[in-house]
Amino acid sequence: xxxxxxxxxxxxxxxxxxxxxxxxxxxxxxxxPFLVGFVAGRKSGGVGTALLVVxxxxxxxAVLTAALITQSFGAEAGGVAGGVVAILVGSYALIxxxxxxxxxxxxxxxxxxxxxxxxxxxxxxxPEVAAVPPVAEIPAPAQGTSARxxxxxxxxxxxxxxxxxxxxxxxNWDRLGSSDDISAANDGASSDVTxxxxxxxxxxxxxxxxxxxxxxxxxxxxxxDGVSQGSGDGLNVTAVGTGTTVDAHYVQDGGYSGDFTxxxxxxxxxxxxxxxxxxxxxxxxxxxRVE
Length: 291
What we know:
By secondary structure, the protein is of the alpha+beta class. The chain folds into two domains: about 5-120 and about 150-170, no CATH class; about 190-290, Quinohemoprotein amine dehydrogenase alpha subunit, domain 2 (Lipocalin), CATH 2.40.128. It has six helices and ten strands; from the N terminus they run E-H-H-H-E-H-H-H-E-E-E-E-E-E-E-E. It has helices at about 10-25, 30-40, 45-105, 115-120, 150-170, 180-190, and strands at about 5, 110-115, 195-205, 215-225, 225-230, 235-240, 245-250, 255-265, 270-275, 280-290. The strands form two sheets. It has an eight-stranded antiparallel beta barrel with strand order 3-4-5-6-7-8-9-10. Helix 1 (about 10-25) crosses helix 3 (about 45-105) and helix 3 packs across helix 5 (about 150-170). The protein is rod-shaped.
């Protein structure tokens, strides 16, 4: 009789026990991760499989956590927080590995009797018969190889693919939006701004002659298709709007000229930006629709 001692367990069994124990006792400081690794190691069928069971989900959780933190807090703050999380996860994983090694090493192997050898040993004795001519030896059918290593490799590969997909989704979460939001953004970018009605323009000189002074004008605009003409309080303005930006050129009654650059804000009734003047000064400018 041929007897072989084997340790019971496999990758799937160890992984299921790992998940179960992590839910039940994984939250307990120090003892929890040790017990998680210990039970998973005893149910994995060997030291190598036990390490694979413990490290695979731990690495995936660490990668996903780091990606979420970086995406939520930015590269700089997320990097600091991610480092703290990496230390915690690494300490947790180290305790799990120790528990898995202890569990796999203390798992009791059980005897396994080969079927062919058992059948031969248990066959009843037969009386001797006359010798017969030798016949060609028929080879015994080959025993099927264990599918556990292949199954473990496929499981790990599948988990790795899921982890990569999750990281890609998290990294691009802010870019994902509903079709309505994207359509609205495209509509806003493609439409041209036409300044119509009466506007109150206030300029504050921040450099050049007259620095610190503030000047105000009421200008009435009319037009269409993104081009507006306006006049009032000694200003003659030609404005061209593209998207949310308005570029305008003005001429003053005193012979000076200059340019405005405004950005549309709010509901389209206010604009903020800058101005320049041929006198060599410039500064900030705001425009508000009053009629």
